[in-house]
Amino acid sequence: MSLTFIPRVTQLDSLQLDEELEELFKNLLFQATKYLEPGFLQPLLPELELILRSCIFKYSLWDRKCSFGQEMLSIKYKTENFSKSKLYWYYGYTIGLKYIKDRSLYTFTSNTKVQNVLNSLETFQLFGDIFNFLRFIQSGKHPAFIDFILGLELCADKVVREDLTDLSWTRELLWHNFIELIGTSLSLVNMFGLRQKLSKILKYVWWRNYARPSNKTSQATMNVNTVCAVCSEKPTLPHVMGCSHIFCYYCLQANKMADTDFTCPKCYYNGKSVTKFVVI
């Protein structure tokens, strides 16, 4: 027997999951095409996003009558009121309008009339979303504006997430604030400087030989597999400081500014000068 009551937070979570999944697919697509010529795909970006969203729509709502986010939370639309005509309207509102807007921004940038029409349409959608959200908070049904327009209702065979009480809300908010505090604090810590200070404090421990700074200069070489000694990515504006390792200019300069005694994280060489890497 399917359940008709679904907690509001579960319905909102499904919308958030759908957005994050779409962003994940887009990032994977961009990663797969990052070695193409810069700007090569820029004119086709609206079409690529249209194809991506259409594929997601086909394998989720069209085939399963639920989005991927809803499926992850074990909820779905009632099949008896989700006809093919409503699927077409759903596709046109959620995907077709986005494509028209994105393509118009590329094609009709200087056309004032077209831009005014698009702005009016976007304003209508915004007011519709605000109205629907206020209505959803009160009724607990139709979390998306298009759901309200088409009369789509959600159901579930089981609810996998508990209905949040005041205690669980407080616990969840405190946990998120604690994680945010840790993330902010860690970003202010100079990890390389901290490791260097720990190496000096523990220099008489058995592993001191592995952290002994090198004072020998050596010639740096660069090939297709060379990565920055700090960020482990392909060096941007390659620079060196006397050892055999190569750094991004910003990685090296930022650490030098933060810690004047900065040493190479690979060989612990303490180079005082920063020079541009030149292929010999």
TrEMBL record:
<dbReference type="InterPro" id="IPR017907">
    <property type="entry name" value="Znf_RING_CS"/>
</dbReference>
<keyword id="KW-0576">Peroxisome</keyword>
<keyword id="KW-0653">Protein transport</keyword>
<keyword id="KW-0862">Zinc</keyword>
<keyword id="KW-0863">Zinc-finger</keyword>
<keyword id="KW-1133">Transmembrane helix</keyword>
<dbReference type="Pfam" id="PF04757">
    <property type="entry name" value="Pex2_Pex12"/>
</dbReference>
<keyword id="KW-0808">Transferase</keyword>
<keyword id="KW-0812">Transmembrane</keyword>
<dbReference type="GO" id="GO:0016558">
    <property type="term" value="P:protein import into peroxisome matrix"/>
</dbReference>
<dbReference type="InterPro" id="IPR045859">
    <property type="entry name" value="RING-HC_PEX2"/>
</dbReference>
<keyword id="KW-0813">Transport</keyword>
<dbReference type="GO" id="GO:0061630">
    <property type="term" value="F:ubiquitin protein ligase activity"/>
</dbReference>
<dbReference type="InterPro" id="IPR013083">
    <property type="entry name" value="Znf_RING/FYVE/PHD"/>
</dbReference>
<keyword id="KW-0479">Metal-binding</keyword>
<feature type="domain" description="RING-type">
    <location>
        <begin position="228"/>
        <end position="267"/>
    </location>
</feature>
<dbReference type="InterPro" id="IPR025654">
    <property type="entry name" value="PEX2/10"/>
</dbReference>
<keyword id="KW-0472">Membrane</keyword>
<dbReference type="GO" id="GO:0008270">
    <property type="term" value="F:zinc ion binding"/>
</dbReference>
<protein>
    <recommendedName>
        <fullName>Peroxisome biogenesis factor 2</fullName>
        <ecNumber>2.3.2.36</ecNumber>
    </recommendedName>
</protein>
<comment type="similarity">
    <text>Belongs to the pex2/pex10/pex12 family.</text>
</comment>
<comment type="pathway">
    <text>Protein modification; protein ubiquitination.</text>
</comment>
<dbReference type="InterPro" id="IPR006845">
    <property type="entry name" value="Pex_N"/>
</dbReference>
<dbReference type="GO" id="GO:0005778">
    <property type="term" value="C:peroxisomal membrane"/>
</dbReference>
<dbReference type="InterPro" id="IPR001841">
    <property type="entry name" value="Znf_RING"/>
</dbReference>
<keyword id="KW-0833">Ubl conjugation pathway</keyword>
